[in-house]
Amino acid sequence: MEEARVIPLHGADREAARRRRGTTGALGPVPVPEPAATEAAEEAPEVEDAVEPAGWEQRLAELLAFARRRLRGDYEVDEFGFDPDLTDHVLMPPLKPLYEKWFRVETIGLHNVPGEGGALIVANHSGTLPLDATMTAIAIRSEHPKRRHLRMLGADLVFKTPVLGALARKSGQTLACNPDAERLLRSGELVGVWPEGFKGIGKPFKDRYKLQRFGRGGFVSAALNTGVPIIPCSIVGAEEIYPKIGDIKALARLFGFPYFPVTPFFPFLGPLGAIPLPSKWYIEFGEPIRTDVHGAHAADDPMLVFNLTDQVRETIQQTLYRLLTQRRNVFLG
Amino acid sequence: MAPKVVLVTGCSRYLGGHLAARFAANPDIDRVLGVDTEPPSRDLLRRMGRAEFVRADIRNPLIAKVISTAHVDTVVHASVTANPAGPSGRTVMKEMNVIGTMQLLAACQKSPHVRKLVVKSTSAVYGSSSRDPAVFTEDMGPKDLPSSGYAKDAVEVEGYVRGFARRRPDVDVTALRFTNFIGPRIDTVLTRYFALPVVPTVMGYDARVQLLHSEDALAVLERAALHDLPGVYNVGGDGVLMLSQAIRRAGRISLPVPSAAVPTMGRFFRGARLVDFSPDQMRFLNWGRVVDTTLLKEEFGFTPRWTTQQAFDDYVSGRALRPLVDPELVASVERGVLDLAARFR
């Protein structure tokens, strides 16, 4: 991943600035005095700012460098359309407060996520809107020692939708299909998948924390084909952000959505209802399940695929129950 | 085995013409025949050197006579094109592509001398949709078959080529699925598109674009004709540009158009003879297309010299596209703001 270009603030630029000031001002060809003195003399009213650390200036320089890169198209995008520069500087920062202050996400067992090489994170899906996926990605990006990017596999509906589809690709998502998953895993990426899909995310509130069917186990065959470990991931807290107590089928059909949720606040409170409830979140990464011990054509053995799928599902379900018994309050944790 | 007599179709166009020129410069090849319906430009003709130009229509059975009397042993079918000659040229283009290929293949099948066939196909055969995997390998097919336009032509052409390969197993058939070409001199829909000062894009979509430098395309076609490398290969440069990124790199300004207005926009541009976008190419602007080139590198033995980004930059500098957004201005604004910040320290 390309690092942000840091522009030396105390080097040439500042020197140039001073020189320019020198020629326009009264100083003329007089040798430039000691920097602190110049600043104090010329910017007397701004003296309070001078005590401020240069941090904001550094950030400004980074921001400008980012803007310049974007304007010139001077950045790299991988074959899936993943744009790390945009993800780190534009897409993730506004979600950070949601992660830290609103949901107060607590991660458990991050050491189970490998620092390098391919791995498949399999998690439960809930919350009406896929905020759980986003929060998992932020957790790994900001709290994992290697600050890895999570490459998520999304439903085709996401990619069909204008704006959303383009943003999803730029944030590192790709279509949930075996060729894409295997290609990512083979190139040593960390891939996240939510195999319950719409059945999980759109389930009614009364079914919370009950895992739905795990598709056809396509994610297991992808892991078997590439020999990467499967990391079961259990997310507690996402179920309560939008308690889905109803579903308006007619509106869902009209908009082409898989469901049109009714929560205690949506759509009755309009846009206000779109604010997620501030539940306390726990994201636990379990012990990796190895898949490279089953031989070359293991993915062709449906029984093995079913068994592994069940094992992953059970692990997540048990972890969910354990986390739930430890939780005393939905909002306070 | 090196070919003795080579026939190149579509030699009045950039690829065919330059390919014929390359063969003409190769002393191992005895005779080079270039076929097209209209004569090549004077510049191209000069480049082609000793290559002979045959003014023939490949839709006409006459082509069989050319192939058999000249003892052609290698046929490079480079005339399948996405660029119609004029605003009314779509039907003609389709006929040239599909009927032309049928006639050419019939002629090749008749002639006992033909030993090798190289077909310039396109990665458009994979279609372009939201339900496709991100990267296409050679064994994948389109999710929904394109119903018209160049992509459908290409699918049909490849079908006839497969049929030919079945009927003449002694002939080495190489089908090359090229991504979009770009380069300082080649003229395609895409090079015209990026040369527009304000580039219309589809609102809410950003396509992944993979490009191939025209020089690389020539090198691949040449290698396919000179060596025995039967099979289907994807050909494209390494790396990907987002459509929006490419537009910015060219210093153009993108104009997002709501998807409902895109067909109208397309008609306007075709009417104004600026860019002729067919519906399947407009779909390409929505989602783009990336192909896997592992087979090209490992089995075909060719690694493109230009990456997608380098090829595009070469096109921008070679065409001397004057950026509307001056990079110098951007840099100076950045410096100015930083200077200002330094003042307020």
From TrEMBL, chain A:
Using the UniProt annotation, give all residue ranges assigned to the region (Disordered). Answer: 1-42
Q: Where are the transmembrane segments?
A: none
Signal peptide positions are none
Keywords from the UniProt entry = Acyltransferase, Transferase
Domain Phospholipid/glycerol acyltransferase positions: 119-238
Which InterPro entries did the record assign? P_lipid/glycerol_AcTrfase_prd (IPR016676), Plipid/glycerol_acylTrfase (IPR002123)
One Pfam family linked to the record: Acyltransferase
Q: Which SUPFAM superfamilies match?
A: Glycerol-3-phosphate (1)-acyltransferase
SMART domains tied to this protein: PlsC (SM00563)
GO-annotated cellular components: membrane
Keyword Transmembrane helix in the entry? The reply is: no
Q: Which CDD domains match?
A: LPLAT_MGAT-like
| Organism superkingdom | Bacteria
A GO molecular-function descriptor: acyltransferase activity
Q: Spans of biased composition, class Low complexity?
A: 23-39
Name assigned to this protein: 1-acyl-sn-glycerol-3-phosphate acyltransferase
The scientific name of the source species is: Saccharothrix carnea
From TrEMBL, chain B:
Quote the SUPFAM superfamilies the UniProt record gives: NAD(P)-binding Rossmann-fold domains
Q: Name the source organism.
A: Saccharothrix carnea
Q: Where is the NAD-dependent epimerase/dehydratase domain?
A: 6-236
Q: What is this protein called?
A: UDP-glucose 4-epimerase
